Amino acid sequence: MKCSKCGGTAVINMRQHRLRLCARHFVEWLPNMTQRTIETYHMFTPGERVLVAVSGGKDSLALWDVLLKLGYQAEGLYIGLGIDEEIGYSAKSLQMCRTFIDEHRPGATLHVVDLAGEYGRSIPELAHSSRRGRGKPCSVCGLVKRHIMNRVAREGGFAAIATGHNLDDEVAVLMQNTLHWQTGYLARQAPVLEEREGLARKVKPFVRLYERETAAFALLQDIHYIYDECPFARGSTTNYYKELLNQLELRSPGAKQQFYLHFLRARNSGAVTFTPEGQVDLHPCVRCGQPTTAGDLCAFCRLWE
Ligand code: Q46
Ligand code: ZN
Ligand code: ZN
Predict the structure, then answer these.
(1) Where are the alpha helices (DSSP H) in 48-199?
(2) Which of 137, 227, 257, 273 allows an S-S link to 127, with CB 3.0 to 4.6 Å?
């Protein structure tokens, strides 16, 4: 297999782009692709500060690396969720973020928020104690992460929060939302969620990249990351949809990319319209000041009641 650019030995074949690249051309191509995505969707500019949510996994560390390489003012945010589950998941993942800085980006700024240290309870404890979390740590965890990311972004004056979601993640969510005709979610699923009333802008610069591409990039750049998945992700429906979509991709290369891009095109051109949840009344939570649609207290503050 030969590199489409130089004829050298290709290390990756991206059939959806009809492109095979050698290691040197691939590690050049991926940041360029990311840059194009940032510009196409008007994610942020070099003059703006970006907060990258890092988990110690390949996508978020590769994203932080690429944004710094591209010259963006990117700082990391690690949220210590206190998930141990006999594999020391959270401790290991923080260690990976620190190792990344030491090995690749000395001088990079990492903000660390330890949930149990700052708020008194870890995710497993919260999942146990709150009504919302019974048997569903991910539901509590998603809420907690959104709240803390937003808080740190607002307090630190960041223009946007960047997450490492790749195309596989987005397509799995799209499939899930489509199968259930979750029109409210379909109306909002996008590479950029604009800032509104106390909620920071959210962007996904890796949204055009397949997971195998971010993994190959991390490997070729010698980025060490945590291989273990969060123990609570095992057997999740998202993983199941990813497997199904990979089978589809094998039979029909480019299927994942087409599904996602055609969805965005159809919706953004108005060819199909989904009704958003309606005009929701957002008002500040009396305790933390973050916007909420509920009563006086936002869902995050209610968790600790
Ligand atoms: S970290 Fe949190 Fe994920 Fe673990 S508990 Fe679920 S949501 S699976 S991305
Ligand atoms: Zn080449
Ligand atoms: Zn609140």
Answers:
(1) 58-69, 89-104, 115-119, 123-129, 137-155, 167-179, 183-188
(2) 137
Nearest CA to ligand 1 atom 1: 230
Given a contact cutoff of 8 angstroms between Cβ atoms, the answer to whether 206 and 34 are in contact is yes
**Pocket lining for ligand 1, CB < 6 angstroms:** 123, 137-138, 141-142, 230, 232-233
User: pLDDT tens digits, residue range 204-245?
Assistant: 999 999 999 999 999 999 999 999 999 999 888 999 999 999
Distance CA 38, CA 249 (A): 25
Distance (angstroms) between ligand 2 centre and the Cα of 210 equals: 20
Q: Contacts for 13-22 with beta carbons within 8 Å, 24 or more apart?
A: 14/210, 14/213, 15/253, 15/254, 16/210, 16/253, 16/254, 16/256, 16/257
Counting from 1 in the atom list of ligand 1, the atom nearest the Cα of 138 is: 6
User: In terms of Cα–Cα distance, which of 20, 30, 24 is closest to 69?
Assistant: 30
Taking residues 106-113, what's their average pLDDT? Answer: 97
Looking at residue 278, its pLDDT comes to: 62
47, 37 in Cβ contact below 8 A?
no
Whole-angstrom Cα distance, residue 300 to residue 305?
Answer: 10
**What tokens does 97 get?**
């973020």
Tell me, in angstroms, the distance from the centre of ligand 2 to residue 217's CA. 15
Q: How confident is the model at residue 45 (pLDDT cuts 50, 70, 90)?
A: very high
Q: What is the helix (H) or strand (E) element at residue 14, kind and residue range?
A: strand 12-14
**Token pair of 17, please?**
């782009």
